[in-house]
Amino acid sequence: MTRIVPLAAASGLPFWRRPITLLFLMAIAMPLSFATWSALLNNFVIEAASFDGADIGLLHTVREIPGFLAIGVILVLLVMREQALALTSLALLGLATAVTAWFPTMGGILTITLLSSVGFHYYETVNQSLQLQWLPKDRAPQMLGWLLAAASATTFVAYGAIVLTWKRFDLSYDTVYMVSGGLTLVLVAWCAFAFPRFESPHPQRKEFVLRRRYWLYYALQFMSGARRQIFVVFAGFMMVERFGFSVDELTGLYLINLMVNFAAAPMLGKAVQRFGERRVLLVEYGGLAVIFTLYGGLYWFGWGVLLASVLYVIDHIFFALALALKTYFQKIADPRDIAPTAAVAFTINHIAAVFLPVLLGLLWLAAPGAVFGLAAGMALTSLGLALLIPRHPAPGNETIFTALVPTPAE
After folding, report:
1. DSSP assignment string, 7-45
2. CATH number reported for the structural domain that contains residue 380 in this entry
3. What is the pLDDT of residues 203-216, one digit of tens each?
4. Quick one: which H or E segment has residue 5?
5. Is the overall model pTM greater than 0.85, yes or no?
6. How many other CB atoms are there within 10 angstroms of residue 401's CB atom?
7. Secondary structure (DSSP) of 319-386
C-alpha cells in the first residue's frame, strides 16, 4: 500500500524522497519524450507523409484538442489523486512517443499525436497544480526557475545526443523515438515506487471553478495560448521549409537555445521575485511584440537565416518569463482552487489552439509574414492586459481596479 505523507511532514524524509525531488524528476521525464518528439517532428512529417503548411496546421490543431479538454482533469480527479494522474499521464506520453515512427501516414501521425497530447496536457495541468501547492509562495518564483532549468538541461542532453549521433550512426526516427520514450517510462516507474503519496494541507475542490475575481488571469491565459500557438507551429516549420534546416541543424539551434535557457532560467525566477509579476510580464509581452514583427520581416523583406536563428533563441527566453503568470495566480488564489483552476486555465489557454493552427496554416500558404504579424498584435494585447496587474497581487487585490471597486468573492 502506498504510504501517505502530509506535506508538512515531508521535510523529515530523505532528500531523494521529498516533493521537490519528485517535481524535478517529473520535470526531467517530460522533455525526454516531448522535446525529442518536437525536435524530429517537422522533418519526420515532411519526409514520411509529405506535409505542407496546411497539414502541419491540422496536426497541431489535433494536438491541442486534449489541451482544450483539460477541464476533464476535474472529473478524473474524482477517482484518481493528482500525483497518480501526473505519473499516469507521463507514462502515456512516453509510450506514445516510443511508437511514433510506427505510424508514418497522415492518419497514423494524427492518431499517435492525439494520444501523446493527452499525456502531455493532462500532465502539464496536474503538474502546475502540484507546483503551486507544494512550493511556498516566498520561494516559488526561484524554484520554478530551477525546475525550468532542469527541463532545459534534460532537453539539452537529448538534443545533444541527436546532433552527435544522427549522422554518425545513421539513426532512424524509430530508434530515437523508442529510446526517448523508453527513458521516460523508466523514470515514471521509479517515481511511482520510490515516492510516498504527498497529502496537501488544502484539499482541492473536485468541481468546476470559474471565479469573476480571476478574470484577468483567464484573459492572460487565453492570449498566451493564442500567441504561443503561432510560435510553436510555425517558427520551427519555417526553419525547415524556408531555410532548409536538416534534423541535426535544427536540433543544433535548439541546443543553443537550451544552453541560454539553462543559464537564464534561475535568473528569470529571481527577477520575478525581485521585480514582481507585473514588470516581468510587461517586459515579456513587449519583447515578444518586437520579435514577432521581426519574424514577419523575414518574409516581407527577405532577411536571412542568421537573424531567424537569433530571434528563435531570444523568443524562448521571453516565453520562459511566463512563470510569472503562474506565481501571479498563486498569490491571488484560494489554495483550494488551485487544481480545478489549473484545469480551467489550461482549457482557456487552448481555446484558440483548436482552430488557429489549421486556419493560419491556410494563411501561411498565401502570406507567411502575416501570420507573425498577427502574433505581434496578440503580444501587444497581452501587454495591455498586463498593465492591469497590481504591484502586489493578493486575494482581494487581483487587478488595479480592485482598489476602487472591490472584486466579488465569486
Report:
1. GGGGGGS-GGGSHHHHHHHHHHHHHHHHHHHHHHHHHHH
2. 1.20.1250.20
3. 766 677 778 889 99
4. strand 4-6
5. no
6. 13
7. HHTTHHHHHHHHHHS-GGGHHHHHHHHHHHHTHHHHHHHHHHHHHHHH-HHHHHHHHHHHHHHHHHHH
The C-alpha cell at 158 is: 537529448
**Distance between alpha carbon 178 and the CA centroid of its chain, in Å?**
22
What residues form DSSP beta bridges with 4? 197
Opening angle at CA 111, ends 232 and 218, nearest 5: 45
Sign of CA dihedral 296, 300, 303, 304: positive
- Mean pLDDT within 50-61: 73
Angle at 285 between CA 403 and CA 311, to 5 degrees: 170
401 is a domain residue: no
The whole-angstrom separation of Cα 402 and Cα 399 is 6
**Residue 4 located in a structural domain:** no
CA dist 281 and 322 (Å) reads: 7
On whether residue 291 sits in a domain, the answer given is yes
Contact 354, 57 (CB under 8 A): no
Residue 60 is assigned to a structural domain of this protein: yes
Amino acid at 352: A
CB 90 within 8 A of CB 188: yes
Q: How many domains are contained in the chain?
A: 1
Overall average pLDDT of the 352-362 stretch: 74
Residue 302 has pLDDT above 70, yes or no: no
Q: Which residue has the cell 480592485?
A: 402
* Domain around 67: 10-196+207-386
DSSP 134-163: HS-TTTHHHHHHHHHHHHHHHHHHHHHHHH
Which pLDDT tens digit goes with each residue over 63-93? 877 877 777 787 888 888 889 999 999 999 9
